[in-house]
Amino acid sequence: MKNVVRQLRGARDLSQADLGAALGVSRQTVNSIETGRYLPSLPLAIAIARFFGTTVEEVFDVDS
Predict the structure, then answer these.
(1) For the domain bounded by 2-61, which CATH number is listed?
(2) Which of 33, 34, 50, 63 falls between 20 and 30 A from 11, CA-CA?
């Protein structure tokens, strides 16, 4: 599943560690989500979307 987490994070000038700390996950988890190797749980996907002030559908491309 494709996502725009890296782009959103970059637009706010956040490191993977910064985002991970804000979400309560590791930097490695953020990296795995960004590269598509890990699909976040629904609560984590919602937390990511809320953190960036957007919707889950705008962060994660469910059609890919």
Answers:
(1) 1.10.260.40
(2) 63
